[in-house]
Every structure is written in structure tokens, then in C-alpha cells.
Amino acid sequence: MNVAFIFSFWFVILNFLKVPYKPRVISGMLVVILYTLMTGLGPSVVRATLMLLFVLAGKLIDRDTHSVSLLSLVAVLMLIYNPAYINDVSFQLSFLVTLGLLTMADVIARKFNNVPNWIKVPVLIPIVAQVWVAPIQMFYFNTFSLYSVFANIATVSLLSVISFCGFV
Q1: Maximum CA pair distance of the chain?
Q2: Fewer CB in a 10 Å sphere around the end CB: N or C, the chain?
Q3: How far is Cα 19 from Cα 13, in angstroms, rounded to an integer?
Q4: What pTM was estimated for this model as a whole?
């Protein structure tokens, strides 16, 4: 979320300054790369960055991306670079949650079509994420805490506000 948030924040600022589209995208890509380097290249940040960079590169050449295929490509590239990532819990959790959100969030959101988005999004995303990480959580940590679902729902809405204030 932070990678996309940083890009969006940069993109909006440059849009406000009337910078043309392609320079906004290219400079945003550089800002995201800089942020990724500053965070220490954790697997989840690298995944998010690579996915965003591929999507943006596609936008620059007027191509659309298929999200699950892109996720698979990024996983393969990261494993070619460092095969030990396959045993990294953060790598596994990051890719599994992303896969779950890409494949299930839209399906579940359509089931609750009559619920307003401001309620649906902060509730459904943590539930889908928690369901998808449950097997790994139980395997590595020998537990599954039900309160974490409610804690995630409570903090999702606040997280974007806190991140925005922190970046400002």
C-alpha cells in the first residue's frame, strides 16, 4: 500500500504542477525505486515495486496488464534473483495475500453489491487477506487469532489517514 501511496502522492503533486503525463510517470517510477532502496529491499516491498513498475511501463507504451500473470512474473523474477525467497515467510505471505486479493476481492465485492464501498472495502479486504494467509499463519506460528480479523478491519481505515499525514 505504501508503494502505491507514494507514487500516487508524487503523481498528484506533479499533476497539480501541470507536468506532462509521461514525465510524471517516469519520475514517479524513480521515486518508488528510491523508496524501495530506502526500505531495505524487503520481499513485500520489492513485489509491490516490481508490480507497480511493470504496470506503469505498460501504461507508458499503452498496454494493459493481467494482474495474476504479472504477479506470477514478479514471483519468478524474484526467485531467479534469490531462490532463498521461497523459504521467506514475508515473501510467502505477500504473494499469497496479493493473489487472494486479486482473485477473490472482486468476486466477493459483487456479492455485497448493495453495501456502500466505504463500508465494503475496509471490511472485505482484511477478511479476504486473513483467509488467504491463515494456512501459512497456522503452519509457521501454530495459531490463528480471530481477533486479528477485527483488528485489521479497525485499522485499515485509519492506516491510509495516518500514512497520508506521515508523508505530508
Answers
A1: 53
A2: C
A3: 9
A4: 0.85
